[in-house]
Every structure is written in structure tokens, then in C-alpha cells.
Amino acid sequence: EALSKEYKIPLSLLKKTKKIKTNSYYDVEPAASNENYPLIIFSHGKGGYKSQNSVQCEELASNGYVVVSVDHSYDALITVFSDGTIAPYVSDNPKKVGGQIEADKITNKKLSSRVSDVRFILDNIWNAKNYHPIFSLIDTSKVGMFGHSFGVATTVLSAQTDHRIKSIAGLDGWFEPISAEQLDLGLKVPFLHLGRKKWRFNPKNYDNMERLSNNSADSISHFPIKRLQHFDFMDGSQLASTSIKFVVAYLSSYNKEKIKNLLNDMLLTYFDHELKQKSVTTLDEVSKRFRIISDK
Questions:
Q1: Residue (of 40, 61, 47) closest to 114 by Cα position
Q2: What's the predicted TM-score (pTM) here?
Q3: Could you tell me the pLDDT band of residue 20, with boundaries at 50, 70 and 90?
């Protein structure tokens, strides 16, 4: 219902998604192991939700990572807490909140709250390892993070302010909410970005990314991707029927298997190199297999 209301998609087109089965199991005990695994945190986009990139989270978890995702309360499409209470999505649409100035204030508050969410996760994993059996399997010296859209801005600021995060990645990042001061501060950790070739309605978005890159110790590895739309960088491309794709402007008709393999292979190769020091192949070598990646 929340998806239907926010994105104006007829509810009848969304009902079938309830029958989709993932490759995951709920509430299982982790296998006994003498090995510790790197941690990766995922941050969803504005109006998104914690399971919006389950395809990438499953891929990473299937290859020796512990993945933690969070609903950013009041910026997630809907947040349902364990006691049944709900935190609704709070809009920062200028037309709904009284103008651009007020909208920017709300966005900035959301971004600050999102970074606090990530810090809260890390603090609990560090200080409450008995909270969940899987926490004890985490190698806390190897922490990565990735996000989609607004989740990329969240990822960048989290890495700037929390030195426990050692490498980050972004999927079609929204860089405009990051202030000039934060852009000039740059990054001290590696950053992989996969995104559309152009943000047509946000022409300054990639200017901000370039400014961040120019001020960073390591330049951003940016791979512009042709033909894809914003929601192709999340589960939308995998779950949407043809009829939904005609309704939602942010989805392309590109082959969903190739989209899945592209995002999964690039992210896994990157984090394997940065957090596991595995270098079977390089990002450039992986990218050459996918003809939709443009020259950087």
C-alpha cells in the first residue's frame, strides 16, 4: 500500500510481488565457523526501504560477508517496528512542505539522522556482540558500506565521520544534499560508484561527485552506465513486470539478468579486493564484459 500511494502504481500491479521468493531463509542460526567475515552495511534511497537491494545483499552474503541493512525511520517508505508501531515517510517535496528552503531543511535533517542510524548499528555490533549470534562472526577490522541514491550521500558522510568504515560503494548516488564543506573534506577511503551516464534533471549532481573526488585521498572509481534508469540500480529491475515498467518512468526495459550480473559482479569484485585482499580480477576487466558501461 505504501509503494502504491507514494509512486502512484496501481495496487493491483503490486499484489503479485507478495508471491516472489528470494534465495534467503529467515531467522536461521549461522553455521559454526572459526573464520570471521567482513561486515557490509546497506543504506536505501529516499522513500526506499531496507530490502530494496536484496539481490546485492544476497550476493554478498553468499560470498562470505555479513550484510546489515536498515530502514531509516521517516525517510524509509514505511518503517514497521518490532512492537507493531509505524514510522511513516516524511516528504521533503517542495510542493508539499512550503517551498525549496523548507524542503532543504528537512533533507538535511534526514541526512544527519541517517548517519546517526549507521553509527548506532556499528556501536551495537562493537558493544553488544551477544545480541545476535551472527554478530560474533564479524571481523570488525573489515567494514564496508554501500547505498543507493540518497543512501550514497549517507554512505559518504558515514565514511567521513566514522573511521571504522574502510571502503564504500554507491549505486546511482544522489550527491546534491552533501554540503560544499563536506565535499571539500573529501574521502580517505576507496569509493566505487556505478551510476547513470547523466542525471538529466539534476545537472549539478555529478559536479558534486567530481568535487568530492578531487578532494579525496583516493579518486572515485566511477563507471557510467548507459540505458539504465534510477530504479534499475535496486530490485525494481528484477521484480517488476512489463506492465509495471510501463507505469514507472524510473525503470528501463533492459535485460534484467545482465543488470543483476553487472551490479553483483562489480560490487563483489570491489569489496573482495578492498576488504579481503582478493584480486582474481579487476573492476576494469569485469566492466569490459558489459557493453552498457561507458568509457569513464
A1: 47
A2: 0.92
A3: confident
Question: CA-to-CA distance for 57 and 23, rounded, in angstroms?
Answer: 11
Residue range 173-221, pLDDT digits in tens: 999 999 999 999 999 999 999 999 999 888 899 999 999 999 999 879 9
Task: Please count the other Cβ atoms lying within 10 Å of the Cβ belonging to residue 144.
Answer: 27
Please state, in angstroms and rounded to a whole number, the distance separating the CA atoms of residues 94 and 106: 10
Q: At what angle do helices 100-127 and 150-161 cross, to 10 degrees?
A: 50
